[in-house]
Specification:
339 residues; two-stranded antiparallel ribbon; 12 helices; 13% strand; globular; alpha/beta
Length: 339
């Protein structure tokens, strides 16, 4: 396993990090299975575990907490807030009112007195940067969080938050967690350059593109990835974007075979090769998944391999742009772009 500095924090984290979204009902993972995954991840050199309050409405946090009992200091522990936690309108977002309450809920579920990284799961357009950063700074000063970051923020919102922190003499986001894979490279044009400019650590989620790059999706074969049942539209081959992804996967599989690599090694090696990326978040459901992903921990792709990937999916290109999750609200809601 390799280790890198998380932004400018001085904290050393593994280049593969364990994402816990699949712990519980989402991945049909029991507590014993989750604990075994954490055990194996730590044994394999992973020292960053990432979860969120909304994964199973707190279930993932509870399972991570139990799995880490007695060894909390062995890991850099990260969680997130802002996504809806109930139908109550104020049980979501990035207001001071909600973050102060929900962080305490997360700490209770995790069974800890602080988290190392507290991330805003999405940008909340109804809350000012000053409101959110002020609350996070106070929580940091209270010792409940060590650092805080953003997740899936558009590049211009990352910049605006940095300016707001400076103008108001508040602590700043030190990380960004975007979606990034060979098939979704759009952030190379904006988010990653911004992260480098401001010295942010980057924790890339979905480096296997929801299973498209795991080897489970190939021409003429039954799709076996768990995501195909949860999100069938992402694997509907009648859609042009999915046909484009499948065409790319077939070409990438040939590149991997010729290099003596698995698709997983090619995919994870690509993400961790970018100089702006700190860690790639893997989200195994089983020990087999984890072992195949850990096998990519020390994969370093040659310049020729990276050039071959560029020839298949051009730099800065998203093959499924509608899955970016960071589009400005006005692109999604017509009322916001009309007088």
């Amino acid at each position: 396993m390799q280790y890198r500095t998380l932004g400018r924090t001085g904290v050393q984290v593994s280049t593969l990090a364990l994402g816990a979204m699949n712990f519980g009902a989402i991945g049909r993972t029991t507590q014993d299975e989750a604990t075994a995954l954490v055990d194996a991840a730590l044994e394999g050199g992973i020292n960053l575990i990432d979860t969120a309050d909304m994964y199973g409405r707190g279930e993932s946090e509870e399972m991570v907490g139990k799995a880490l009992a007695g060894r909390r200091d062995d890991v850099v522990l990260a969680t997130k807030a802002t996504m809806p936690m109930s139908d109550e309108r104020n049980h979501r977002g990035s207001s001071r009112r909600w973050l102060v309450t929900e962080l305490d809920n997360s700490l209770r579920r995790l069974g800890v007195d602080h988290v190392d990284l507290y991330q805003m799961h999405r940008w909340d357009p109804s809350t000012s940067d000053e409101e959110t950063l002020s609350a996070l700074t106070d929580l940091q000063r209270a010792g409940k969080i060590r650092y805080f970051g953003s997740s899936t923020f558009p590049a211009y919102r990352v910049v605006q938050a940095q300016w707001a922190a400076r103008a108001n003499h508040l602590s700043r986001y030190v990380t960004e967690q975007p979606s990034y894979s060979i098939l979704q490279r759009g952030i190379e044009a904006d988010v990653l350059p911004v992260a480098e400019e401001y010295g942010l650590g980057v924790l890339a989620w979905s480096p296997l593109a929801s299973g498209w790059l795991s080897g489970a999706v190939r021409e003429g074969r039954e799709i076996t990835t768990n995501r195909s049942t949860m999100l069938p539209e992402r694997f509907d081959l009648s859609l042009p974007s999915n046909r484009a992804r499948l065409d790319a996967v077939e070409q990438l599989a040939q590149v991997a075979d010729e290099a003596g690599l698995t698709m997983i090694q090619l995919a994870l090696g690509f993400v961790t090769a970018h100089p702006a990326v700190t860690s790639a978040l893997i989200g195994p459901r089983t020990q087999e998944h984890l072992s195949t992903q850990l096998a990519a921990a020390d994969t370093v792709l040659s310049a020729d391999l990276l050039d071959a990937i560029d020839a298949i999916v051009a730099p800065g290109t998203d093959l499924a742009a509608h899955e970016k999750f960071d589009a400005p609200p006005a692109l999604l809601d017509p009322s916001l772009r009309r007088r």
